[in-house]
């Protein structure tokens, strides 16, 4: 486990870009509540994604779809 942590510390993966999520949601006329219901997640998770405070790649992929 220490080797894995060391490798990540030495070679961090860049955070995925999420600056397109909120403008896209607003352009489609979707509320954050609707996105939360469709994705089956918490509103804090969506808020954190839209503010680039989360690195949940699976949720980002599902959000874009």
TrEMBL record:
Protein's recorded name: XRE family transcriptional regulator
InterPro entries: Lambda_DNA-bd_dom_sf
Species: Corynebacterium suedekumii
Region (Disordered): 1-20
Domain of life: Bacteria
